[in-house]
Write a structure and sequence with these properties.
Layout: E1 14-22, E2 25-32, E3 37-45, H1 52-67, E4 76-82, E5 93-98, E6 104-105, H2 118-137, E7 140-141, E8 150-152, E9 158-160, E10 167-168, H3 202-219, H4 232-239, H5 253-262, H6 273-278, H7 288-301, H8 303-307, H9 310-314, H10 329-332, H11 340-345, E11 348-351, E12 354-357, E13 363-366, H12 370-383, E14 387-390, E15 402-410, E16 416-428, E17 431-442, H13 445-456
Antiparallel strand pairs: 1-2, 2-3, 3-5, 4-5, 6-8, 7-10, 8-9, 11-12, 13-17, 14-15, 15-16, 16-17
Helix pairs in contact: 2-3
Keywords: Kinase, Transferase
Protein name: CAMK/CAMKL/CHK1 protein kinase
């Protein structure tokens, strides 16, 4: 019975391709061919076991997100619910139609332990702070600001996403605020005051979150495992010893002053958003886009990936083939996908089925066919202590066989990561073999890039990876 179920159309959008997700939710690319529009659709599965509390949490997320309309917040368009208790031809679930972040993850473009130039960091941190200022102005505390929730649109504009842990802390009508009690968030990004049972003020914990994000932009890593006595790095931060270590000793004076002001352990001494905007580092004129346009922004963002050779692996020189893939992507290569920014980021891949939008740079081409490459990948993942599970291969109507595997593990900060590795046969000119793309569902995008690099540099896989000539 379940095999015959299909996805509903939401406002004329049809779900056509899985592009992410994890746990009980899956994210799909959705297209409205009549209007030449593209969106994302987050589908949260509903079952007879879904509790009332879980439904209330989802309802709150949708209610909060729907009300937020700002250029630096991922837009929520609409929602559609298919109840599991009622007979229906559709998969039961809550379908949330969202703006498509065609530029992908911001932190997918940054080399681990390297980071980006200060001008690029300032460009994006300013947008992040502006977005957060708006969210707080609406009386909302995000409570889960971290790299994986920071996305980019086709023009390279930063978008804050995922309001699943958000809370209303202020009444817009009179500005009256309340303290929050719930402990939530991921340990490397949470503020230290969340480690006690005392109620906490809302705004300082979000400010702390963007401080960790700024550190990550400039360094390519998070500052510590957790802001507690258990973390050796955090203890050295409190004493000031950490400032002699890499990457802290790489930061300019103004940047370091701003980061330490934001990451003040005492929330009453932590910088506020108005103070952040007044800081000299934030008031520098941003000339990244005005001087060189969106292509300069994209090149500046991926500079560390070019320097360490990662971009040459993600975008090797292969003969172009001008075909349209099975989902009609050529029709959809409009402003929603194709821009000076996404073109410069090289977010399009050549596969057996044609040119395809691939919004991640954790991908590679191999000279081996999928059936031969797959055992080498599983061997390497086992050596890396990463769990994996291979699904049965699929052979769609276009004839290109595809393999898919789920992978998961823990990064150096003890945070879980999950995702998929998809292998697809390709042949372009004199080159043939496998196109392999790694989609992250959960975890830090920089940790996912580290896994990608470890896999392609493993002794079993590396000899068979195409590189730019």
């Amino acid at each position: 019975m379940s095999d015959k179920l299909r996805f509903p159309k939401i406002d004329g959008f049809q779900l056509v391709q899985e592009i992410g997700g994890g746990g009980f939710s899956t994210v799909y690319r959705a297209v409205n061919i009549a209007n030449h529009r593209v969106a994302a659709c987050k589908m949260v599965t509903l079952t007879m076991e879904t509790t009332e509390a879980e439904r209330k949490t989802l309802d709150k997320e949708m209610r909060v997100h729907t009300a937020l309309k700002h250029k630096n917040v991922l837009e929520f368009f609409n929602a559609f619910v298919v109840e599991p208790k009622k007979p229906s031809p559709y998969h039961p679930g809550i379908y949330m139609l969202l703006e498509l972040a065609a530029g992908g993850d911001l932190f997918d473009k940054i080399a681990p332990d390297v980071g980006v130039r200060e001008d690029i960091a300032q460009h994006y941190f300013h947008q992040l702070a502006v977005g957060l200022e708006y969210i707080h102005g609406e009386g909302i505390c995000h409570r889960d600001l971290k790299p994986e929730n920071i996305l980019l649109d086709a023009a390279g504009t930063l978008k804050i996403s995922d309001f699943g842990l958000s809370a209303v802390y202020k009444l817009k009508e009179n500005g009256k605020t309340r303290l929050l009690n719930e402990r939530c968030g991921s340990m490397p990004y949470v503020a230290p005051e969340l480690n006690s049972n005392i109620p906490y003020e809302a705004e300082p914990i979000d400010v702390w979150g963007i401080g960790v994000i700024l550190f990550t932009l400039l360094s390519g890593s998070t500052p510590w495992d957790e802001p507690t006595q258990k973390s050796y790095e955090y203890q050295k931060y409190l004493t000031g010893e950490l400032f002699n270590d890499d990457p802290w000793n790489r930061f300019g004076r103004e940047a370091l002053e701003l980061i330490t002001g934001i990451l003040a352990p005492d929330p009453s001494k932590r910088m506020t958003l108005p103070e952040i905007f007044r800081h000299s580092w934030m008031r520098r004129p941003s000339t990244v886009v005005t001087r060189g346009g969106l292509s300069a922004l994209a090149e500046g963002l991926t500079e560390s990936l070019r320097q360490n050779g990662d971009l040459e692996i993600a975008t090797p020189s292969l003969s172009p083939v001008g075909r349209t893939d099975r989902d009609g992507d050529q029709i959809m290569l409009t402003a929603a996908y194709q821009s000076q920014f996404t073109q410069s980021l090289m977010l399009f891949s050549q596969t057996q089925a044609g040119r395809r939008y691939t919004p991640v740079l954790t991908r590679f081409y191999s000279s081996l066919l999928p059936g031969i490459l797959l055992p080498l990948i599983t061997e390497s993942l086992t050596d890396l202590k990463v769990k994996w599970k291979v699904s049965d291969p699929k052979k769609p109507t276009d004839g290109a066989q595809r393999w898919k595997m789920r992978v998961g593990g823990f990064d150096k900060r003890k945070l879980i990561f999950k995702g998929t590795i998809e292998l697809e046969e390709f042949e372009n000119g004199d080159h043939k073999g496998t196109f392999c793309v790694m989609h992250r569902d959960q975890g830090n995008p920089i940790s996912w890039r580290t896994l990608w690099k470890s896999l392609i540099m493993s002794p079993a896989v590396e000899p068979h990876v195409y590189k730019k000539q």
